[in-house]
Model the fold of this input.
Amino acid sequence: MTNIKLGAAPPGVEGAGFFATSLDKVIGLARANSLWPLPFATSCCGIEFMATMGADYDLARFGAERPSFSPRQSDMLLVMGTIAKKMAPVLKQVYTQMAEPRWVIAVGACASSGGIFDTYSVLQGIDEIIPVDVYVPGCPPRPEAILDGVMRLQEIVKNESLNRRNTPEYKALLEKYGIQTNNG
Amino acid sequence: MDKLNNEILFSRLKDRFPDTILNTDEPYGLFTIEVDKSHIIEVLEFLKKDEELQFIYLTDITAVHYPERDLSIGVVYHLHSFVNKLRIRLKVFINGGNPEIPSATVLWKGANWMERETYDFFGVRFLDHPDLNRILNMDDMEVFPMRKEYPLEDPNRVDKKDYFFGR
Amino acid sequence: MDDRINIMANPITKITNNTPVYTDNDPQEDLITLNLGPTHPATHGVFQNVLQMDGERIVSGVSTIGYIHRAFEKIAEHRPFYQITPLTDRLNYCSSPINNMGWHMTVEKLLQIEMPKRVDYMRVIIMELARITDHIICNGILGVDTGAFSGFLYLMHEREKIYEIYEEICGSRLTTNIGRIGGFERDFNERAFAKIRSFLKRFPAVLEEFAQLFDRNRIFIERTSGVAAVSPEKALEYSWSGPILRATGVDYDVRAQEPYSSYEDFDFDIPVGTNGDVYDRYMVRNEEMRQSMRIIEQALAKLEKEPKGIFHADVPEFYLPPKEKVYNNMEALIYHFKIVMGELETPKSEVYHAVEGANGELGFYLINDGGRSPYRLHFRRPSFINYAMYAPMSSGMLLSDAIINMSSLNVIAGELDA
Done:
């Protein structure tokens, strides 16, 4: 007997050689299990990300096999490390270039809230410039914590509507940050 | 030939520059001299090029701000002589209102970024520096943040509630 | 600058059909401006190089840094001495114990505290383990940049073993805040020693396997040999230090020049290269890892001979007493209060102390005015000073060589910007 717990299949109709469920469940599953990260690693949390990507904690088994440094080809933006005010326009530009659907995880105390650096040169949390989905606390967070953050994001992704980008709340959110999209 | 130590170093400096060394001190074994701004490049050149002293390595250039003094900014040079296993510290105090000092880039190319950092933080203008711009802070910043009158935290924050910080 | 876009001043937030993305000039007659960074593939850290390129060859470049400037020196003027240790962690975060120990030794030099030999040897073990972690990252990432990913994976697993040793001693993996001013907060327990010994048994074989993948590998040698060769005179002009200076041929190592923490009791070699190119820097770092293991073995042997149980200097005025004593003993309570509230008598003087960090001479220049926090604390950061030569050095290089050069300089962004 194996002690591997299989994930629950979404509710649907099963038959000989087919399984029918609603489209958003399937797309949700597909998106959640193939999140390609954009590692925006600036400082110490970036080294913990390298440990997470390594063989011991292996982020790749969650579908993040291809860390892409191109914003156009990635789904989730992992902001790891302190974002200084000099770096903020760069982060905003990278986020704007990401194609929908896109999610943001703020890894570490510095990305979530400025961390221990309450100074004139550090941005006190990236949610001042871009919308954030998951915050992972820690300084730096253990790789297990980063994996937990990715798993929470997977739950969010599975249950999100397919048409999120056109909903008025989302548009208002991006409006609030001053991020313009042409609905791409 | 005696091994070079701080006394011999001091006597060599005094012979060569009889009246430019203003103060000397030896905190924790590191010989420290205070030099006037107009002679600093000569002293550095002597220390670097002399056959016996050979302080060929520029360890660091930085600055200190003493707002209550007349000459409020002190530029501090650390040099190192490998063959003699000796370090020396030179301090030059300059006027805080208009801090200017000749640049050491004529002697060491490594002084370039060290002086840019000192300019960025204290506003010290190094004359004849090839590229004196801000290096670490944002380019459009107008103040020199390491001076004592500037606060650590961002004064434009609106979301920090004084009540929670005991103010 | 005609119709070229200044990206940093006007970040593009909306792409439309009219957004200019090219000019009408003939590209083969113009130099291209390539913006390398600040978001970097290969996780080197955030620094930018704006390069003028003639095809694949770099004509000139300008480095801009400061994208992670966290104002450490300003923060340090507002924190008591023992709270500056977590700041020093985040300077070179790949080898944070070396920064911690360097800071503690600076303050001990200021306060003229004499350390027992056992504490010195324990510090040496931790610092050499930290040096190994930093060189693992540098050489592993150098392999990744040349296209060889497996070596990095094998070495990262060993890095996890070192993290377990740190966890056993101080509780945290990466930013360790290890030790106290005056020694350590607790003795190394038996499990920590067992882990160190098992690491020493395992790591040489893994390092040899990694070296076998790269040392005589034809592709690696063609990519790195002869690339970015630096003469020792030029390196000294630019105040280089650390493995990259030793790769050019100058055998300057702070551990040998001005021994601290009883390094004079140890017997180790200083590897030196010949032409200062990327291959030499890689070989010097590999050899330094082997020498570090030699030092750790000697330190373990020496620890056997020292009286057990001493893990801090006997300075109750500066070293926090154990909590049981604080609640039961009046003197301990008074010392605890004085240390935490900063009512200590510290000499009003200035001190400069240097340790051999993984990248070079890491110096701490502390000016104390007798108060709770330093009056001025300056970090002499090797990455910052080493990186200054990068832009002048890369003119005339191919772009791929410039990337390998940057990898081998081991620039850690936290230490670059501070």
Q: What stands out?
A: Chain C has 17 helices and six strands. Residues 117-145 of chain C form the longest helix (29 residues). Chain C touches chain B at residues 65-66, 69, 71, 73-75, 77-78, 109-110, 236-240, 250, 252, 257-258, 349-352, 354, 361, 363, 365, 367, 375-376, 378, 380, 384-385, 387-389, 392, 417-418 (CB under 8 Å).
